[in-house]
Every structure is written in C-alpha cells, then in structure tokens.
Amino acid sequence: GPGHFFLYAGLQELGVANGEDLIFFLTNCTEPLKAIEQFQTENGVLLPSLQYALPFLDLHGTPRLEFHQSVFDELREKLLERVSAIALEGKVEERYKKLEDLLEKSFSLVKMPSIQPVVMCVFFFLPKVPEKKLKLVMADKDLYKACAVEVKRQIWQDNQALFGDEVSPLLKQYILEKENILFSNDISFLQNFFSPSPKTRRQGEVVQKLTQMIGKNVKLYDMVLQFLRTLFLRTRNVHYCTLRAELLMSLHDLEISEICTVDPCHKFTWCLDACIREKFVDNKRARELQGFLDGVKKGQEQVLGDLSMILCDPFAINTLALSTIRHLQDLVGQDTLPRESPDLLLLLRMLSLGQGAWDMIDSQVFKEPKMEAELITRFLPLLMSFVVDDHTFTVDQKLPSEEKGPIPYPSTIPEAFTFFLPGPKAAGSQPDLAGELFFWFLQENKIACEIGLYYILHITKQRNKNAFLRLLPALGKFFDLAFSDIFLHLLTGNLTLLSDEFALEEFCTSLFDGFFLTACSRKENFFFHVLRLLLHLHHKVAPAKLESLQKALEPTKQSGEAVKELYNQLSEKLELRKPSPAEVTETPSMELPLPTVPTPASR
C-alpha cells in the first residue's frame, strides 16, 4: 500500500535495494526461492561469520526480521550517539561541516520512520539548517510536526504567519483561562483572581509553552510582543498586558540574558514584579521604579509604550491601587495632604501611565499623561474625609453619650466627590467647581475611578457596612463606565464577608435594587456576577426577597448561554430549598406504623 512506500522512501537514491526491487526480482524470475536467497545474500549484513550464525538462530525459531531489526536498532543508537559526539568535538567549523555532510547523505531517507530520528538529530545539532532543507521540511506537514522546537525556531523566525498560527491558539487559551477564573462559581474573599503569586502564574501552561517556543531567540520574542500589542489594541483586553509581563519574567527566571538584556523594560518589570508579590510598593522599590521612569532619555520615549503596557496589567493596577489606599490612610494619621507625599504622587503617576496604555499605543504618541492637579488637590482629600468620618464615627460610638439615641452614620456624599465619577451630571450639581474642572473631568476620570472603586473594595473587605451603604448610591449612578469583570469579581468576593446582612430587607434593597439590578439593564456581565453571588449566598437572603430577585434576574432571549446556565443552577438550588408538601400539610395517621424516612437535606 501507499503507507509501505514511506518505509523505504529514498533508499533507491542511495543505491540500496528496497521492497519494489524485491517485487521486480520475483516477477522476473523462474525460481522464486533462489531469487529470494540471492536477494538476501546481496542485501543482508555483509559479515562472513554470519553465514554460520544465522542458521543457528533459525534452529531457535528466531525470525530473520527480528534479527535484522535488532541489528538495525543497535546501529541507529550508535549513530545517534556518534552525531551527539561530533556536535561537541573538534573545531566549530569542522564539526558543523561533518554534520552538514551527514545531513546531505541522510536527508533523502527523512521520510523513512526508522531513519527519521537520525536526520532530526542532525537538524537539532546544526545551529543553522540549510535554507533549502528548511523549505522542504516546511512544505511537508508530517516532517514539520516531527521537528524539534529548536529546528522550528529557525523556520518561524523567517515566517511570521506560520509562527502566528502556532501562537494564536495559545493566546486564546490564555484569555479563556483568565476569564474562567473571573467567572468561576467559587466565590471567596480569601481566594480571588489576584491570589496566585507571580511565580505561580508563570508556571501556567501557556506561559511555559511560549517560553519554550521562544528559547533565546530575540526575533521570536519580538514577534510575540507584537502579537500581544496588536491584540491589546484590537480588543482592549488587559489580560494581554499580564501575559506581556509574565513572559518577560518567565525568561528572567530561566536567566535568558540574550533576551532580558535587550528588553528595555526588564529591570522595571523585575522590580514591579517584587511589588506585586508583596501586593505593596514600599519606599525603596518606589524610588527604584521612579528612577526607571525618570531615566527615559530623549529619543527613547517609545519605551513608555511598553512600560505603560506592563503597568496596565491588572496585577500591577491592583498593587498600585491597594498601595494608594494604604498611603491615603497613613496620610490621615500623619495629618498630611496628598500633594505633600512624593510616594503617593509616584503611585498616581504609574496608575496614570497604566490607564493610558491603550491610548498611547494607539496614537503612537509616547509621552507620560499629564497629572491633573484637581485629582490631587480635590478628589483625594475628599476620599480622605470619608476615612476621617469613619474614624470619627467609630470613636463617637465608644464615647459615653448623654443622649439616648444612637449616633447616625454620615449618609450624604459631598457633591464634589460624585463630580469626579463618570456618568451623567444633574444641572447645577457642582456650583463650587469651575468650568475648567468640568472639562478636565470629561477627559480624565480613570484614575479617580480606579481609586474610588478600590476604596469601596477596601471598606467591604473591612466589613464596613455603613461606609459601603453610604457610597453605594454613587456607585450605582456614576461608576457605570468602570465596571470591569475584575472589579465585580472582587466585590462579590468581599460581599461574602457581609453575608449576615443579606437577611436584612434594607441592605438587600440598597444592594440589589439600588445597584446591581439597575446596572443589569445596562450590562450583561452584571447578570453573571449577581447570579454568582446568589448561588453562594441564597440561603442567607430572606425568601420573599429571593423570589423577587429570581423574577428580576430571569434571562431574556438575548441573554448569553453562560447566564442562562447559571440561572438554571440557581433555580435548581432554590427548588431544593422549598418545603415539600409533606412538611406543609399534616400527614393523616395510618394504622400501621411506618419507619421514618429522613428527608433530603436542603442544599
């Protein structure tokens, strides 16, 4: 059959008889047995002593094929060992000349499965496989597949489209893995999207495969970075920024200096990676990071595009935002204003660079976004005033009070605060703010937004129900632009800490009616996160409220499959909670006593 042809492919070119020659012999002879004997003598192992040994093997019932196969396997192993030895001995030019000669002799047999490993071994040890041979390999799918990654690199570096075809499924897999974590049904404030350490994340399958595919090849590394930039521009998906940083740090772990020394972001990423590991930017590292940013020389501004992408990584943003909130709390204790803290200003500078990554790469205008004064002189002091209100309330509650009534928690939000948040503004709602500020707000709200959201995450993590309910109306009205799946993933996780509050009508009305359900009408991802939360906490919610939520969250025809699937899971859980008819009505007594059957425990 045609498959048999490959077993002997290329032998004729070397003047070695193959299966076809044997067929020719047998069809053109008068005595087939003699013809076979002659063929065996001419093509067998030419060793005189063997003519006595082979009949001895025949007596033991050992087939000739088995004997020849074992000799062949032994010789091939010896040849492979010899190729490996040649690759390491003598002068460089000489050893590669020997390997090239061997390749020339053996390449015609590359399709023979039994000889292919030898050819591939020669390929492996040649630093540069001849162009002609690479083209032949590239044109044959099976040969290309059989090549070691070291050989494929030589093919890829001059064939971006082929390399793109290899990398593309890995990038899709990476994004899918990230989204699976964000949309996972497991909700916990202890284990969330940001829990795994940088080192653990770099052990992921995709990062490891890409690292192996790149090896020490700068050209391939640059290609992958170009793919990531292009995809980030096309989709605005920030997970590509994470992969950009993880890939560089994976090569750093392996000490691939050939790449690390030529990537201008290496030292900055290395330092930031240490901060991400600690989830905090300390003073020493802050000075180091500032040194890198200040050290961008004239004419080298393009590096800011890469640095901004590294800073746009959600893990970097998370670290910078957490550090900002911590700094603001420290400043309250020190009685210091934000503008007087160089460390805080650096964090804002890096947040600004990260938030501006897409615009910078899109416009190809490489300069740091201008830091607007109002963010520092108005918005952050307002945020600090919330921290002060909170401290004051806590202290007031502990003081002995002559009046009987409980001290109310401050419930209003200063108008100036909501002004900084994205969303529609009512006419005349900011009488104390100038027109320039309004213009600034329209253009620059991302950082105020990010810090505001992280402050909300901070107070929910502290189980601070009062502060959360105070800011919730602003969250529903103004933060619409900023609701990423990452924020909603973290918020739902932190809300599990307030699980006991879900039994209270007032809390549920504020949370669901005032925030989640109004947002659901605007964005489908809200449906998903509300359903995740209810799957986790449905047993805490008052039955009447749960029923109305179930109705409100019913998927429409337009809803995605994932939302429908999650809704069905929730409905099944709620069905199991309903009391069975036997529990509701009394069972009439029967004359014979029946053994009691335990009812299934509600889940």
Structure overview:
It is a single chain. The protein is mainly alpha-helical and 603 residues long. The protein has five domains: 45-156, no CATH class; 159-181 and 194-263, no CATH class; 269-369, no CATH class; 372-396 and 434-475, no CATH class; 484-569, no CATH class. 67% of the residues lie in helices and 0% in strands. It contains 33 helices and no strands. α13 (205-214) crosses α15 and α15 (239-253) crosses α17 (266-278). The protein starts with a helix and ends in a 19-residue tail after the last helix. The model is unreliable at 1-6, 424-443, 583-597 and 599-603 (pLDDT under 50).
Describe the secondary-structure layout.
Blueprint: H1 2-7, H2 19-27, H3 32-43, H4 50-59, H5 64-86, H6 92-106, H7 116-125, H8 131-138, H9 141-146, H10 149-156, H11 160-182, H12 198-202, H13 205-214, H14 218-235, H15 239-253, H16 257-260, H17 266-278, H18 283-294, H19 303-312, H20 314-334, H21 342-355, H22 357-363, H23 373-398, H24 415-419, H25 435-443, H26 446-461, H27 465-478, H28 485-495, H29 505-520, H30 524-537, H31 543-552, H32 561-577, H33 581-584
Helix pairs in contact: 2-3, 5-7, 6-7, 11-13, 11-14, 13-15, 14-15, 15-17, 15-19, 17-18, 17-20, 19-21, 19-22, 20-21, 20-23, 20-26, 23-26, 26-27, 26-28, 27-29, 28-30, 29-30, 30-32
